Structure formats: C-alpha cells, structure tokens
Amino acid sequence: MSVIYHAHVYFLPEQAEFAAALHTTLAAQLPPGCWLGRLIHREVGPHTRPMFEIDFADTLLPAVRALLEQHRGPLPVLLHPQLADELAAHTTAASWLGQPLALKLDTLSRS
C-alpha cells in the first residue's frame, strides 16, 4: 500500500504572482495521479504562510521533488508523508526544499 505525500509550497503576499505562475506551471507538468490544490492566501492549520498543496503517492515523490526543485525559485516547500501522527509527519518524517519555516506545531495531533 502506498503512502500519500503532501507538498506545501509557501509564499509571502509579495510573492503571490510568482506562486500563481508556479501553480500554472505545475498544473501542466505534474505527473498523472497528483492533486493540486488552489492557492490559499492566508495561514491555515499549522502553516505560517500562504501556500498551495500537492498530494501524491510516494511513488511519485522523485518526480514531484524534481519539478519543485526546478521551478520553485525562492519559495520554500515542505514535503511530508500523511501519517496518523501529524506532528511526526511535519517534523521528523518531513524534508524541506529551501529555507525551513516555523510551523504551529501545537495544532498537530500525535499518535
């Protein structure tokens, strides 16, 4: 059984235009089986910046990571598996492309 991964692409308000262009690029280039969420122009959940999300099976991780590395520019990206232990998913099991950001860890559940 495959594990679902999430990629959270973060942007500042002044980077919203770049983020929208990246979103359009990714919509055209992500492999089949990826789900691309809409741009969210506010903080939500544990996330401390506006962002958009990509969900995909772990088998697609190398392809998604490569696309993000190629096109993300200055935007930081959090990659993590979907786990019952949300805190572990967003910390010890996670990886970052670019500068890691602080998260609101107190909003995450533990198993």
TrEMBL record:
It comes from the Bacteria. It holds the Pfam family DOPA_dioxygen. InterPro entries: DOPA-like_sf, DOPA_dioxygen. PANTHER family: AFR070WP (PTHR36423). This is DOPA 4,5-dioxygenase family protein.
